[in-house]
Specification:
Number of helices: 4
Strand order of the largest sheet: 1-3-4-5-2
Number of strands: 5
Low-confidence stretches: none
Helix content: 10-25%
Radius of gyration: 16 Å
Order of helices and strands: EHEHEEEHH
Mean pLDDT: 93
Largest sheet: 5 strands, mixed
Length: about 150
Amino acid sequence: MKSEPSVYSIDDLQRDGTAEWEGVRNFQARNHMRAMRVGDLAFFYHSNATPPGIAGLMRICREAYPDDTQFDRRSKYFDRRSRSSKPAWDRVDVAFAARFDVLLPLHLLRDDPALQGMLVLKRGMRLSVQPVSEPHFRHILELAGTRPAQVQ
DNA sequence: GCCAACGTTGGC
DNA sequence: GCCAACGTTGGC
C-alpha cells in the first residue's frame, strides 16, 4: 500500500498506532482493499520519496467500509458522483506492525532475482494498492531482517 | 521539472 | 463503442 511520506509516513503510523486508509480513487486498488481481511499484513510503501521503497509493515484491523471523504465537499477526495446510498469508494483501517530498520529502496528490490515479476517493479505500475505473493512477501521480510516476534 | 504510463472524461 | 484530450501518478 503506497503513501507519500510527505503526506503520511510509516513514522506517522507508528505515532498514531492506527489509521484510516482513505483517498483511494481507483477501482482496481479499491477492489484489492475489499479483498483484505482483518489480520492480513501489508507493506507500507513510500512513494514519491527519495528513495522510494518499502518502509515497514502494517496489519489490516478493519475491513473495507465506505470512505467518508467521498461525501465531504471540503475534502480533496470528494466525489460529486458518489451517493451515500451507494458509496463508490471504500477504505480499510490499518495498524502499525513494524518499521524496517532501513527502508528497502525500490532499486534494491529491482535488482533482486527472487523478486522477479513483483507487480510494484513493473514499468508504469501506478496502482496504490497491490497484491503481493507469499514468496515475495516472505523474501522481503527476510531482506528487512524482520522476525515475526518483532511484528506488533 | 520532465515525461511515460495509464485512467477517466466526454464528444461523436 | 471509439478515441482524443486531459489529468494524475510517480520514478527519475
